[in-house]
Amino acid sequence: MKKYDVVVIGAGPAGYVCALRCAQLGMITACVDAWVGKDGKHALGGTCLNVGCIPSKAWLESSEHYYMLTRKLSAHGIRASEITLDVPAMAGRKDKVVKNLTDGIEFLFKKNKVTWLKGKASLLPDNQVHIHPVLEDDEEMTVAAKNIVIATGSVPRDIPNVQIDGELIVDSSGALDFQSVPSRLCVIGAGVIGLELGSVWKRLGSEVILLEAMDSFLAMADEQIAKEARKEFDRQGLDIRLGTRVMSAEADKDHVVVRYQDGEGDHTIDCEKLIVAVGRKPNVEALNASAVGLLLDERGYIHVDDYCMTNLPNMYAIGDAVRGPMLAHKGQEEGVMVAERLAGEESFVNFDSVPWVIYTMPEIAWVGKTEKQLKAAARKYNVGVFPLSASGRAKAMEETSGLVKVIADAKTDRILGVHMIAPSASELIAEAVVAMEFAACSEDLARIVHAHPSISEAVHEAALDVHGRGLHR
Ligand code: FAD
Ligand code: NAD
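^ Those are the sequences you sent over. The predicted structure of the assembly is below.
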């Protein structure tokens, strides 16, 4: 039986990064993965590269270009006529981006001498892993590992009375493969996926209705940012309905009938496509967890400590399959930490400074605590805010919606959270993450020279505003 220093199960961002780092540190490493790509062949990269972060951002970029051309560029004095939309070409470009990146991981595995084992893994006693064939050419085998790292990720949650058929009623993966613009699109769940994919199809011309179970909008974001975002999405024409309870969804030949209730009674929506985006759940079913005594928590995640150690010796778990936000970068850093700890280093992940980004237009991003969380913890704080409407660069860009907000401890001035809805917020938030990692005060951000004119000046001004020293509003 082949023996490895490390066998990583799952080649999503958590698993493939962990495998690469293990190999870099001199460990004999294999990575098992069951994913089959659109071409019917095995593909590396997991959810993120195949049906998540990357394809969704490819659609976002394409749809933003279309929206700019059809709706925004006239304000700059640019008028275009006879604009045509080729959705299959957009989908094809997205597929090329995905293929390029998944092939890139295969290249990195070869370069770093990570063995790619193709098939579905389950755990056996004594740190052995059995690999079941998924495709005809896959080889059934059992391998032994000094250490096992589980990175099996997550899959979409479903809801009762709504059956995914992959055609008219789809999950996020299906929504990334539409070949035409649905005239009316309904999305169940106004969370991250609902807003990102709803925005894509809205920009491309669909009427979009989002049905959200909760009474509040974007409950995980800072309230002020969520309120600003809601205002902006209303302006963009996204029809967001809160406090809804979906009773059923039935697909007919070419349309779907969705029935739901809210405080005002029963309602029916007739739409061309329905996307179900109500969260994701850990993907642990094939692992054989209970047979080897691997502990899951009450929500089905693999139980781990801060260093991603499971209850079993020499067994670790990382990424979406364990507690914490389901974000690719969180899983990647856990993968690096586990690899380095296996090599004897004292690595750790600071879970308090994991940034969040929602890739809408404008983007929403944050790091650290919200005002609500600080109030609940009875912590005293000061807040500084800067609206994009007062930014020279934002005006020049014709992108003046949004704001940046810095929250700092009332006594020490240490930054506790930074929240924003702004163009390129996904890039701007990195400054806040670095500041928090270096335990910066709002005063530090306020004294750093920011290039003029730039959107980053909004971060500077929000930091100045923490002590009422804002200059440009
Ligand atoms: P996954 O990426 O889910 O990979 C797990 C891998 O393990 C898969 O290849 C799976 O086939 C394999 N596997 C599972 N079980 C077994 C088994 N028993 N044997 C062998 N292989 C197995 N996050 C962000 O940070 N930014 C974004 O912009 C973003 N956008 C997203 C957009 C969408 C539409 C979706 C659905 C998700 C998005 N996410 C985003 C979330 C991100 O994709 C996940 O957080 C990330 O992929 C989790 O990485 P992972 O490695 O833990 O698991
Ligand atoms: P989510 O948790 O962000 O949103 C799901 C939404 O569905 C919630 O608002 C929830 O209240 C609602 N909901 C649940 N059940 C419902 C029901 N029966 N009817 C109506 N609404 C219901 O989950 P998601 O949007 O599916 O995304 C899954 C995960 O993927 C996210 O948690 C996120 O971590 C990750 N993701 C991240 C990004 C990013 O980083 N930009 C993008 C996409 C996905």
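Residues 87-112 form the longest helix (26 residues). The longest strand covers residues 141-150.

Shout if you want it in another format.
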